[in-house]
Write a structure and sequence with these properties.
Helix content is about 75%, strand content about 5%. Helix 3 packs across helix 8. The chain contains eleven helices and three strands. About 0% of the residues have low confidence. The chain is mainly alpha-helical and about 260 residues long.
């Protein structure tokens, strides 16, 4: 275990896990606050601590299962494609907000927090499992560090994201990088990659002595940022057209006004 701590790959993986959690878990922490907002102040603290603690344990268990599953052929390929979609989705502005009911009972608030965290944590689990690259030590340590940061710093993080949207873009790029890395390490692709001239240093694919994981990670980050930015702009344009149509009291199909006859 001590040898693992001394490697550069361990610390890079740890930073990836913390980064992924900070980017993807902000909404989870907001849900925790919403679920507990109707409780008395003392119970609010208890609901946040107990609900968050239970959510942390649940997420660690789910992620351990995800790490084990990602060792099977084809599942890394599926997981990487899902991560690409999550990264692109992160860059597309969302409409509306989560419909989370406040609870006036401590147990009910904790249940709400657990259910909401379970539903909203699928993306986190897949991304963290990919970043851990099979290391259980890295996985648990990364979650143990990053989840408290999310719980106590989510409000600050959300404000920072609103002030500097580039943080969201960086987060999307990080997910694309992790997805690209995971894609080329699927055991099912090893024979195909070898046939294309890719060399393997243990389980690490290389092209001309350069890590194929890093190459595909960079490509993945570029793809996610480009696709997410493009789709986000299209969505914003459609929203602007719709708002303009509503303002003049006509449906979208009638935005084109009839030109006055000369």
């Amino acid at each position: 275990m001590l040898e693992e701590f001394a490697t550069q790959a361990f610390w890079i993986g740890l930073l990836k896990i913390i980064g992924v959690n900070l980017i993807l878990s902000g909404d989870n922490a907001v849900v925790i606050a919403l679920a507990a907002r109707s409780l008395p102040p003392k119970q609010q603290t208890a609901a946040v601590l107990w609900g968050s603690g239970a959510a942390v344990v649940m997420r660690i268990i789910l992620t351990i299962f995800a790490v084990a599953l990602l060792t099977l052929p084809w599942l890394k390929l599926v997981g990487s494609l899902l991560l690409f979609w999550i990264g692109v989705k992160l860059l597309i502005p969302e409409e509306g907000s989560e419909d989370i009911n406040a609870s006036d009972n401590l147990i009910a608030a904790i249940k709400t927090i657990l259910i909401a965290d379970l539903v909203m944590s699928i993306d986190n689990v897949i991304a963290v499992a990919a970043a851990a690259q099979g290391s259980l030590t890295l996985l648990i340590l990364g979650l143990a560090i990053s989840i408290p940061l999310v719980i106590f710093g989510s409000t600050l993080l959300l404000h920072l994201m609103e002030r500097w949207p580039v943080i969201i873009t960086i987060g999307g790029g990080l997910l694309g990088f992790v997805a690209g890395e995971m894609l080329v390490t699927d055991p099912a692709l090893k024979g195909w990659l070898t046939g294309l001239g890719v060399e393997f240093d243990g389980e690490k694919p290389k092209v001309g002595g350069i890590s194929l994981e890093i190459i595909c990670g960079v490509i993945g980050a570029v793809i996610v940022i480009a696709a997410g930015t493009l789709l986000g702009k299209r969505k914003a344009m459609k929203a602007a057209v719709h708002e303009a149509a509503v303002e003049v009291g006509r449906p979208d199909t009638a935005v084109k006004a009839e030109r006055p006859k000369s």
